[in-house]
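[SOLVED] Need 3D model of a two-part complex

Original post:
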Amino acid sequence: MDRLLAVFLDGLIFAAWLFLVSAGLSFVYGVLRVLNVAHGSFYSLGAYLAATLVGAVVGRGLSVLLTYPALLAAALVVGLAVGPPMERVLLRRIQGRDEVTGLLLTFAVLLIFEDITKLVWGVTPWSADAAYGALGQVRLGTVTYAVYPLALVGVGAAVGAGLWVLVNRTPFGKLVSSVIADREVSAALGVDVGRVNSFAFTLGAILAALGGALVAPMISVVPGISVEVIIVAFAVTVIGGLGNIAGAALGAVVVGLIRAAALYFFPELDLFLVYAIMTLVLIFRPYGLFGRPEVRRI
Amino acid sequence: MKGRPPLRPLGAVLGLGILLGAPWILPGWLLFLLTLALAKGLVVLGIVLLMWGGLVSFGHGLYFAAGAYTVAFLYRFLGVREAAVGILGAVLVSGVLAGVVGLFLSRYRAIFFGMLSVAFSMILYAFLLKFYFVTGGTDGLRVPIPSIAGFEPPARDIRTVYYFLNLGFACLGLFVAHRLSGSPLGYLMRAIRDNEVRVEYMGASVRRTVYAVYLLSGVLGGLGGALVAFNVGHVAPDLAYWTTSGEFVFVAILGGTGGVGAPFVASAVFELVRNYAIKLSPYTWQLGLGAVLLLIIFFYPEGLWGLYEAIRSRLSAWPKSSSKR
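Solution:
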């Protein structure tokens, strides 16, 4: 029983993290029709900057509680500094070219950021664990859990709810939905598609950096995390259907729970299972659990 | 849609003459780089074949590593040092692997194709890393100097022997790709890039076409992997890692899809530049790759080959245009 509870909680924590990184990826794909491989770079930049800021807060002898605003600040700074210029300078120029060009372009950006992070932060691991310990532990039944990862689940749910409200209940959400439905018609009806793209891309970048910043206290931040995350995030978004945020949430919970179970019962199978689920979903529902097949144009 | 690229006999003979004389002209380290470039060019050629149909495989490290590890396993578990057996084994293993993986991948296009192929190669990477009692883990496995068709090459000339081995296979790959580009399969592949639905309305099977080309592409990857395993004398899980696959895609785009020789030219340029760039500044190597890739995407979508064609056509038009003035 305790074991099941532990698996369930671990699964939820993992799912929250997965949702944070894949929601942005899915959202950006939905609006811009670009699979942003550099999403992983935003994630790693967020993690590195968070580790730096947490280190600075602790190093100055300030209250540990200040590390939490520092994590959020890291996400905002990275998203706002990197998102708009990348959309404006690079992605806007390949609009209308096929999706593979977007993949290659963002792959190039990923390569560039890989080296930039190495140049700025070096190759030795960074850590932000001060923020992890400060929230203490909690007893759930007979299982003792650190509070920080549980709080991450709350953040994941809050981000999900926020995104839902943004898309379904705000004027901006209406514009986004219309661009997702049909870019040309929206432009013809007077929607500033460029602005919507820019907003959506920046939001995606902030979400990626937030995922990195919030997970930084739980992991050691090293070069290469950018790629690991992009592949897993892609698997999650594909399971739910690319461009579908509710789908990303479902995919995150499915993958999170299964991976947690795998880590407890068959540790060797860990990553294999994530890919196996993705492959199975793709075989039976090529457009994801929630996706709709696209109309093929002649 | 482009037709079959024309053969240029004079250039081909001249190029072949230089390539055949290379072991006596070039210094040892340069010959080694060229040897590697030829082997990796085969993998890149495989990727370029898929690019004809607009498909980008970000996971060819899968076949590259499968071929290389086949050679290493043959020695480790069966004690086989024979290059012919190793290469044949690598071709078989990568062919079977591509046959299975291709069943899934031939259903997908664009980003799905690309990302699924990464996923498959990362599964192999995880396997090579985790099952260290079979694969040697991160340390990898040693590959001894092979015997070639029963003949033991003298250690002094081993580099030259490798070079000609790779040159032979590169020529074979070039020939196959050249024939393919003029065959119905080649035309179908390029038609798929233009419009898949129309190809199906003509009565051709898109899936079968993609599957057939994917099979060939995987075999080329395995062949290149086996050759690199012999040249380097060592295999490691990194061969299946996404960076390796990403480099192949980079070289493919650098060369462009215009001519079947482009992968080999681009591969040689890439190995040469990397040799210096990594020495000069190891931390900005990927940054440079990314920057060059951006330049190609924005300004030279046809790659080096396209650049060469543009210069050539301008040169051949030069006397006429000057007489007009």
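Edit: The mean pLDDT of chain A is 83.
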